[in-house]
Amino acid sequence: MDTQNPSAPLRTQSAPAADPTRPRRHGGGIIHENTRHTTRFVVIGNHLVQHKELSLLAIGLGCHIQSLPSGAGADIKSLTARFPEGPTRIAAALRELETYGYLRRELVRTPTGRIVTRTVSCNQPTHRREAADTGCSDQPVRQPRPAVERTPQPRPPCATGTRKALPAVPQPSSKAPSLLRTAADLLTGLRRHDSRLLLSAAETAHLAPGVATWLERDVRSTAVRQALTADLPDEPLRRPAALLAHRLTDRLPPPAPFRAPTTAPPLRHPIRNCDGCDRGFRAPETEDRCRDCRTPAATHP
Description:
Elements: H1 46-49, H2 56-67, H3 76-82, H4 87-99, E1 103-109, E2 115-121, H5 129-134, H6 177-188, H7 201-216, H8 221-229, H9 240-250, E3 271-273, E4 280-282, H10 291-294
Antiparallel strand pairs: 1-2, 3-4
C-alpha cells in the first residue's frame, strides 16, 4: 500500500503565463522578418501608421507623401495619376491628413504672378507638451494663439441673402448681338474643359462683355479659352466667376495694330486697235480711236 507510482505527478502544475512578446504556437498573429535598410528608406512614426482615427487610405497616402522628395507633386491631380483611387477618395484622404496635422496646403503666388498650391508634409504633428513628453497622444492638438486686444469696431448692418458683387470686366466698343452671343457661348463651353467653371446665367451675362472685348481685339476664341482655363489652382474654386473676371481684366491684350485700308489698283483698260491709224492703245470700249486721231486736224501744225 505504500508503493508509489513514479510516473504520476506529485501535484497539479499550472500552465506558465503566456509571454505577450513571443509569437503564438498555433500560428496566429504576425511574425516579422526584418532586414535593416541602408539605402532608399524613410522613417515614419507609429503615431501615423497605427493611427486609430485615420482611414487606411489616409494612412497609406500619408506614408507615400512622407516618402516623396522635396518638390515632387502631391496635389490631387498628381496623386490620381499615380494611384487607382479616384480624385474624390484622394481628396477625402488629404482632408483627413490635414485634420490631424500631417498635411498642410497653402496657396502661394510665384514671382510671375501664378497661384500654385504648396503642400507641407509634417512627419510629427504638433502635440501638447505634456503629451509629447509621455507619448500618450496620437491626435494633434492646436496650440492656442496669444490673445490680442482689439478695439471693437461697429459692424455694418447685415443684409441677408446678398452676395459680393463680381469685379468689373472690360467693355467692348461694339454691342453687336452676334458678338455678345459668341462670347456667351464661349463662357458656357468652359465647363466642358473644367467642371468647376459652371456659370449661372447672371454670371455669364456679366462676363460676356469682357470676352467680347478680347474677340474685338482680334483674339481667337481658342486663345481666349486658353487664357481663362490655363494654370487653374487644384483647390476647389469658391467663386469661379470672380476668377474669370479677374483674368479677363488682368490679362487683357492690347488692341490690334492699325491696318490702313488697301486701295484698289488703278483701272487698266484693255488694248485695242485705233480705227483711224490702226495703232494699239488702251481705252474703254466706248472709244474707237486713239488720242491723236481724236484730236482735230486743225490743232496739228
